[in-house]
Specification:
single chain; alpha+beta; OB fold (Dihydrolipoamide Acetyltransferase, E2P); de novo design (two linked rop proteins); 2 domains; elongated
């Protein structure tokens, strides 16, 4: 954390909790410092000018001062409120999922990650603007895994190292990669992955979003990829995420 008594940051509001009679404790993901907590004093008062800038998902510039135990929000200005994310339960669910993944893989005072911050803001923008969020979410998942050091091995067998051929394969959460049929016959706890699903996951891993957006996977491949990624995240985090259940209820 910087030693300056006050500093300016670009941030996304990750979550907030009521604090005392009129304050809020914010969790912010900043481009400069990574995940930080900060106290917004008096923000729950009707007269507060900062309240509208400090809602979840909001992209802001913020002035932070060092307090005794916590950073203090002294100024805040909205860059993008992403208001449509609050108007649709489905979009709210997807935005919350993106934020939850980031939160689970981040630690306070680990330092800034401008690439990951840019990915976060761009993903919120895509969820806001695109009619279907499947592509934006899968692309975010793959790029997030790259940034936090858990890039799946999709081009060679994670067990024997042989090149993966154009046939149905297995995926191992333990080794973090695809297992060829030859190795998969003798290994436990594997998940099947079809040629089509693997093709699109590879595409998202090595392509720009513009190129990835040309993908048109079948509904079966979309479901398979979603289930696979959820299983992998559950393994990595050693717990289930909260938001997929909410998204499932909204869909139904």
């Amino acid at each position: 954390m910087t030693d300056f008594r006050s500093f300016r940051a670009t941030a996304v509001v990750v979550r907030h909790n009521d604090w005392g009679e009129a304050d809020r404790l914010l969790t912010l993901y900043t481009r400069e410092q990574g995940m930080v907590r900060a106290l917004a004093k008096g923000v729950r008062k009707i007269t507060s000018r900062k309240a509208g800038h400090l809602q979840p998902f909001t992209h802001i510039t913020v002035q932070l001062a060092k307090g005794r135990d916590l950073l203090i929000v002294t100024q805040a200005e909205t860059i993008n409120a992403f208001l449509p994310l609050h108007d649709s339960l489905t979009k709210t669910g997807y935005a919350a999922y993106v934020i939850e993944l980031l939160y689970r893989f981040s630690y306070e005072e680990e330092g800034g990650n401008p690439t990951l911050f840019k990915l976060l803001v761009e993903t919120l923008d895509r969820i806001e603007k695109e009619e279907v969020a499947w592509l934006a979410i899968r692309y975010y998942e793959m790029r997030l895994l790259d940034s936090v050091g858990f890039r799946p091995q999709l081009f060679e067998c994670a067990n024997c190292g042989r090149e993966i051929l154009a046939e149905d394969q297995f995926f191992s959460f333990t080794t973090g990669g695809v297992i060829c049929p030859r190795c998969g016959a003798g290994l436990p706890n594997l998940t099947k992955i079809s040629v089509e699903t693997l093709k699109y996951l590879r595409h998202f891993q090595r392509s720009s979003y513009r190129d990835a957006s040309r993908a048109h996977p079948s509904l079966e491949a979309q479901k398979e990829a979603e289930i696979l990624m959820q299983g992998y995240f559950t393994y990595l985090l050693e717990r289930e995420l909260n938001t997929p259940g909410f998204i499932k209820r909204v869909r139904s």
